Amino acid sequence: MQMPPTVTPRAFARLAEIGAGEQNQALRVAVEGGGCSGFQYDIKLDQPAEDDMVLEGQGQKVVVDSVSLPFLAGATIDFSEELIGARFVIENPNASSSCGCGTSFSM
């Protein structure tokens, strides 16, 4: 069985700050074909679906669809705030390389 992705307390805290749970929304993390390295992350607020894996913490939810789940096995979903901006980031042990923007990777 594959290890599910994990979500940091900082990522759950950011979802609480923006009121995602109050709007009955979750952070959806998906993997799609494309980007400069072959795969790219699609991260957005969305309604949970019936077949999603739901990761919960601090009253917030992060969801991953069944197709994306194998690509995110063992990954860590975090939130980063830097001088250049703030964003959700994914540390993925399955990615063999990634591009400079951090949203595209290959396996």
TrEMBL record:
Keyword terms, alphabetized: Iron, Metal-binding
Keyword match Lipid metabolism: no
Ranges for domain Core: 6-102
Signal peptide: none
Transmembrane parts of this sequence: none
Gene Ontology CC annotations of this record: iron-sulfur cluster assembly complex
InterPro entries assigned: ATAP (IPR016092), ATAP_core_dom (IPR000361), FeS_cluster_insertion_CS (IPR017870), HesB-like_dom_sf (IPR035903)
UniProt xrefs under PANTHER family: IRON-SULFUR CLUSTER ASSEMBLY 2 HOMOLOG, MITOCHONDRIAL (PTHR43011:SF1)
Name of the protein this chain belongs to: Iron-sulfur cluster assembly accessory protein
Organism expressing this protein natively: Roseovarius tolerans
